[in-house]
Structure formats: structure tokens, C-alpha cells
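Database export, one record per block. Field names are fixed; values are copied verbatim from the stored entry.
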Amino acid sequence: MEAHGIMKAFPKVKRSKVADSKNAPPPKKKVEEVVVTGTVFQGVSVHILPAGIGKARCDIFQRQVTQNGGKMESALGPGVTHVVVEDTMDRERALRLLKVDTLPSSAQLVKCSWLSACISEKRLLDTTGHSLLLPERNKPVNNTDTQDRKTGASTAKPALLLKHDVPSVHEGPSQTEGPYRDEDGVTQSDLDALMGGHHPDSQSSPDYFSTTPTTTATPSTDATATAPTSADPSQAPGGVPGKWVCAQSSEAKGNNHNKHLTDKLDLLAKAYTHKGDRWRSLSYSKAVNALKSYHKPVTSHQEACQIPGIGQRMADKIMEIMEDGHLRKLDRLGDDVPVLEVFTNIWGVGAKTAHLWYQLGYRTLEDVRTKASLTHTQQIGLKHYDDFLERMPREEAAAIEKTVREAAHAVDPGLVAVACGSYRRGKATCGDVDVLITHPDGHSHKGVFSKVLHILHESGFLTDDLVSHEENGEQKKYMGVCRLPDHVTVPGRPTSTANSIFSQPTSSTNTTNTIPGQPTATPISSQPTSTISAILVSTNTNTSANPSQTSTSHRHRHRRLDVIVVPFSEFACALLYFTGSAHFNRSMRALCKTKRMSLSEHSLNRDVVRQGSTKLAGGTPVPTPSEKDVFALLGVPYREPHQRDW
């Protein structure tokens, strides 16, 4: 079986044998022998003040200095040439921590950014711009200050508080995570962490923000505050600053200046997903998105910390990649990760089941097939494992959408069928297809669910049922497996109506708008076009991915398909929800919480009352005829589907 995903990044590591005797002393750590491979730091003797730098970075610095001909000093002495401190530290604090009044005449006090720059450029750089010593470098620290320190008296003014003494507002969830959680799965600390990736130059913000307040949106404390019923953005409940993900276009991350960083961090995010560690995975995913949309390459630890969504610990890992070219945490994840990835790629298998199988000694798909007790859905997932794992070209997704739409029109020509997900966001490839079905009159969608599925089953288009009928309020959902007939081609040009797999023909007005490659349905002639156009605003997504124009003549693969029938009153929120991305949706829901609102695939509600993690009152649904109304009610500029691909 060919290795997929992160499997290649985790070669098997031999485990050291456990001592037979329980009383055996713990094995001593072997001192790592450092081989000198360069001369960058030849003649340089470095002492590192670890405060604020972190153990991981200190280890990297020590190894790099030694490998490049330098010498590390564990204590400050006359032979030290450079004393390295954290970037935000000042001279007085450094001397205080070193417990000296002055430095030796041969020593320079420099920021760790100097050491990082030397390692990156592989040459010894001048300390100008990195030195903390003033011209009167040997001037003793004021005796009064020294006496004040001994007696505990404080004469420092509040304005002179050191930056690293104040908790960072950019700390990730691993450091500031609180217990607050509600039905959306977003903690209170996520309200800031879910923001990120904006260009720091306020000039680059959309014109929309020129008419709205620029202060950060905060939760309303007025019990009588309500969201406006008007869709006018100017009347939205408070302007939304550009740091919210949902307030920005994902096109900002089109040019990834930090790919060497995001590739490594993305591996960790996926690894923690397979391990079932949701919060670590989410933390790394946020950092990856923030770095992808950052306007320039990150050059220092301090700069990394200033990017919203990246905290001190994440910045440490970023610097480790920059300075060492590798992330040691990847080596310590264990050889279970590739196996867990294989297992969780089976549809219907989650992290808990994958861990159970691993503990039972299963290591391959063959082990699962012959030894595990599988549910019906897991059997289907295993049967179509390779097909589900291979992403389909968007032309194939368009053909699947067309097939479902034709089945819907065979039941009622007035039904609207729209493919969502990555297809609607304009991606070149898709993992599965989600098709929403509704009717503009608000009631004719009732009763069509089973009829549409019956047609798709009878034609042989649906091959396996995963969840045949799931009710969610007034919404009905089918989850299954489909496969296009072999005679249906998937080109980038219009498909002949002769390829339809249904015996019942559709009207000419319907078939003219079912061209593979076009992501959404167009207004049906028998219905008022203005209503449906308002719902399907800007669904002809960005097709800059330049899809292939060649036909597929080989046998089509089995694909995952979800069909959801929704009432017209919920269609806008459902369309927004199923279009995604997941990170974009989390940001929208987190923003709603700051405005005493809630957002789901059913509705946007106002006057929501929460106490801690408990929702005391669900609030009142706000009319949302289109996606644009949802954005406007939240005070967020409308984003096209292809601009939501966070």
C-alpha cells in the first residue's frame, strides 16, 4: 500500500528495550557528541541567559554555536565574548538576572535575534542594532536602585513595565485555555485565537471598515441589547475589526511567504488530529493559517509573537524550524501516528477506534479486515478506502451535482440543487460532494427527500448507503456513496444530455444550465429569478485553478455524497454552513458569541442568553433571505465562496 499524507514524515523508530529488573537504575542520557562542521563562530564564546528564551531554543543555539566552531560558557566569566538575552529584555533587567553590576570589558550584551541572524546567514554579523549596551557600558548600576532591590522597594513607574512581564494577548489555547465552552465547541479563549492572518497595515483593510468603529468587538453586557433586523451593514451591532478570520478574504494567504514553517507545523496539526488531540490540532491549524496569510517571511521570535493567533510556545517552535531546519517534536510523536492515520482514513473510524485497534496490535488494513469487528459503515469505508482517499477533480464533482439536480427536477422542476463544500469554494479538487436541495415557495420541499433518493438508487448512481435518513429539525440528510456511469464523461466542456442516467427527460430550460465545471444551479424558469438569484449570490466561484480539459474514459471511482433537503427559510444559513471552510465557520460562530447571537446551519439567532457553558435561552431567529444578510447582520463584509477557504 502506498504511503499517504504524513506517513512519509514518520519513519519507524526502534524503541529502546525496557530494563528487565524493576529496581534497575534509569538509563543515563548519552551526551550528544557535536561534530564541528563550520567556522561561523570561531573565536566566539557565548553565554546564554535563558530567561524568556526557552529551553528548546537554548538547546538549538548551543548546538549551532558548537557545530560552527564556537564555545558555550555555562557561567559569565572573563572569557565570554557575547552574552545573549531575550529580544524584549533591557540592559538593567539583564544585569539584574546575571547578578552583576557591569559586564567584563570583553563581553557584548546582545539580543538573541543577532544569534538567529548569524545562524540563518551562516556568517558572523555585526552586533549593531542588536546590542543592548549604551556608551557608558561599564557604568555601575545606581546604588540606590541596588539598595531598593535589596529592601524590596519599588520605584519603577507603571509605564516602564517590561513587555515580557505582561501576559501576551496572542497566547495560544495551550497557555490560556479556560473551561468556557458551549454547543459550538469554541472556548472563550478561542474568541481571540480564532482571529488571525490580517495584514498589519490598516491601509490595506477593505473600504467597508472606513465607516465602522475600529475597536475590537467585545461581548455585550447590556441585557437589553438586540441585533438589528435590518441587513444594512451600517446598522450592524458594532463594526468588526479586520483581525477576525471571517472579516477577511482567504486570498490573502495565496502567496505563502512562510511555507518552510507551515509545512512542518501542518504535519503536527494532522498528527494531533489522528491522535484525537483536538485542541492541539486546532492550535497548530490556527498558526498555519496565520503564517500563510502573513505578508512577509517571519524573521524573529518577537515578530512571530506579534502575529495574532501565535503565542510564545508556538513562536519557539517557529524559531526552532528557522534555526535548525527541523522540528524535533515531529521525532517524538511515535511510530503510532502513521498507523493511526491509515485507520482514521477509513470512513466511520474515529480517533478512539483507531487507538483501540492499535492497542489490540492491528497495524495494517489487512489486520482490520480480518480481525476487527466492523460496523456497516466501516465495512463500506474499508471497501472503498482508496477511492475515498483520492480527491476528485472539480469536473467530476460538477457531474455529480448535475446528476442529483436532474433527479430533483424529475420530481419537481422548481427544486433548487446546489453543491457546496470545497467545490463551491472554487477548489481544483474535492474530497466529497454536499448537495443542498430546497424550493423557493417554502413548502414544496416536503416529501421530495425519499423520491429523489429512490430515483438515484434505481438508476444505480447510489451504490452504498452510509446514513440513509437523518433528521435534523426540518432538515433531512442522506449520506452515501455514488459512482458516475462509465458512459458519462467528465470534461471541462458541456456534457451532452444524452449522458443523463434518468429515463425521464428534463425541460430544455433546466439542461442548458447543467454544465460540468459550473459550480451552482441557475434560476429555474418556472420560478421568480430574483428570489433564487438572491440566495445563490456569487456562487459562480473563482475557477483560477485551471482545471484539466481532457475527458475521463476510465472507470469512475466511488465518491462520498451527502444530500440535504432544507426548508427555504433555512437555505441561506445552510448554504453558508455547508460551504465552509471549517475554520471560517468557527470564526463566524465565535463572532456571534460576542454579539449575544448564535449561528448554525438552521438560523442566525439574536438575544441568546448564556451562563458559562450553558445556553439559558436560544434566542429568536433573524430573517436571513440570503448569505449577504447573515454577513451584514454580523457587521462583516460579504465574502465570496472562494474567499472563505481558510
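Remark 1: Residues 449 and 554 are 31 Å apart (CA to CA).
Remark 2: Residues 394-411 form the longest helix (18 residues).
End of record.
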